[in-house]
Design a protein that fits this description.
With about 290 residues, this protein is of the alpha+beta class. The protein folds into 3 domains: about 5-50, RNA-binding S4 domain (Structural Genomics Hypothetical 15.5 Kd Protein In mrcA-pckA Intergenic Region, Chain A, Roll); about 55-150, Pseudouridine synthase (2-Layer Sandwich), CATH 3.30.2350; about 150-290, 2-Layer Sandwich (Pseudouridine synthase). It has 6 helices and 16 strands. It has helices spanning about 5-15, 20-25, 100-105, 140-150, 225-230, 280-290, and strands at about 5, 30, 35, 40-45, 50, 70-75, 75-80, 130-135, 155-165, 170-175, 175-180, 185-190, 195-205, 210-215, 255-260, 270-275. Strand 2 and strand 3 form a beta hairpin.
Amino acid sequence: MENKRLDIFVAEKQNCTRSRASKMITGGYVFVNGKKGKNSQIIKEEDNVEIKEYHEEEIKAVPENIPLDIIYEDDDVIVVNKPKHMVVHPAVGNVHGTLVNALLYHFKGLSDLNGSIRPGIVHRIDADTSGLLMVAKNNEAHEFLSKQLEEKKTHRKYIALVHGVITHDTGTIDAPIGRDEHDRKKMAVCEGGKHAVTHFKVLERYSSATLLELKLETGRTHQIRVHLNYIGHPIVNDPVYGRRKIIDDSGQCLHAKELGFIHPKTKEFLTFSVDPPKEFIKIVEIYKNGNL
């Protein structure tokens, strides 16, 4: 037990995932020498670790009459333009108002490969990232679309407004991403992280910002936001990775603009494109006019 992180020790002791162990610790179910434990604290042989019985909050996804911007639909696939501030699926402490709640109301048949709280969900984007997502109506379509993602056969392009002027027209960021050791809620470029590659192209330059088109080669959590912050050009208005003044509460200027995939039944390659929301455009105009 000596010199072992508490979250690792609890995961081993409870034979559970490190994520669950972390929830137990942050939820106040683990005490070290009579005091509430912390995930990162190092415990030693003489420490007394007490683990109280833990019951994770049951999460249920219920249908909710929330409007959706459906770009495409057939018997197998739905393409939806997700707005900013919408979480993709329910989680502890956030069980209402998600994309899944809306999908369950508007569509009676969705794939169940990802369980009851993520029906139809093939891939995700952050809550404050707007743009295109594909949703599977049945398990066969889900498996087919998921395999395309794994084999990098889908087409996904994003646009982002970043701080600073990037002088080269194109570039590639190849840097591994893992949990930030100083803040477990964040991701960071770090040794031992998962392989992550982001390609970018400059669309427009302003006096203090650059508009980029980005293409993902991998799909790590917060990948674009972390990679752009890593090269010193964080996304404008990003409250987590931005490190700069926040303009409003609309979230990071990141939009999933294009989505392309091979249809599971027809085998036709379909491509969709949507413009960014008004909140994104408003901030771009501020920089374009030299007001920031």
